[in-house]
């Protein structure tokens, strides 16, 4: 029988650890001279110098609709390759990816494993998870049933901020009445009730109001100071044709753009880039901008718009200029809404360009605010079934065909090449034989990536998304969190009330 002396074992282990530590103290120059080694060491050193401030005067929440982790990775490479002449790109960072604090966020709705934007933004705006399709009402409500929502309305961050005397703003490249922006200021059991003409008889009977109405018809002390996006048709009567020759959709005959300018002090309404650029932020306290009948253009197509549209960066910057006049502070929520739409269309190019523009807008916000008093958070509402695959060599065009290390074109088992980016489902699926992409320019903006399961519209995905934060209160963005925790991080940072800590 072998007898083990544990004291001897402990002594040997201790001696071994000391030897390893001594050896680790002297690293070879090939290791310490590496730029990878130096950069990562400096990053960790910098983190040890961080101090955590808890109170924020201002909060800016950016939401990249549909911006999952694979979208972030592909967009950072895409941006890097544009800067570096289509070589490298992997080492690039989007502006907010260098924020000091990060968390993973669970996105499910109370009734769906894979969520929709109404339920996810409701979680962020109210601190309460709810069903898919409902906006800022609890999941005790039935979707599209007005009566069931009565008494189940939830108070949003916008309401709390306004009650404290802060200024508030909502910006989106989608319709401003679309699910994500609407959840911040409207309470309704159906995200599709964007104009009064969308209301069913039951909703009218039980006095539910459409989303556009709820945006404009607020008391001045609870009104948005800034509302910029698309969706003009939901604010003007169906008897009116707008400046781009598109008809309105309101059946009540009310022009809400006119009501906006009449109801609020120092108010302005604009519908094109010329009008937007002409706004004097020093004399404008309430700005409504509706730059398209439906959604605004994708960033890749924005310059082709007939009337002209401001970029997400333009809208963010002007919003800050208006909101910053309030010495008590402000809350601004900015959505890059069309990342989601490009993914639904199976079109990675436009999704990545819109993601890069979101990064630009975040950088502009950081550059135009005081980091000691402004909490900036960047997140998504959900992800998409979008993936990066194959074994492309470093620097391979992210929108291109896969080339293996050494430059050889990668060939699938069907004898055809394939792209790095693809979708699990969506309109890019081919029934039968897969298209040969050898002679197709997969980098042009209209190319639709191939997918596995044929669907008319690619779907959301259910995995976690990220939260990136900097500024006072940002240290609370850590770990794996439920999506409704984002509300509480903002609520605590600005001491908005409604929660006991």
From TrEMBL:
Top-level taxon of origin: Bacteria
Gene3D superfamilies referenced in this protein's UniProt entry, alphabetically: Alkaline Phosphatase, subunit A
Name of the top EC class for this enzyme: hydrolase
SMART domains named among the record's database cross-references: alkPPc
Keywords noted in UniProt: Hydrolase, Phosphoprotein, Signal
Keyword hit for Phosphoprotein: yes
Keyword Secreted: no
GO molecular function, one term: alkaline phosphatase activity
Signal sequence extent: 1-24
Family matches, as Pfam families: Alk_phosphatase
EC number: 3.1.3.1
Similarity comment: family membership: Belongs to the alkaline phosphatase family.
Name of this chain's protein: Alkaline phosphatase
Organism annotation: Shewanella eurypsychrophilus
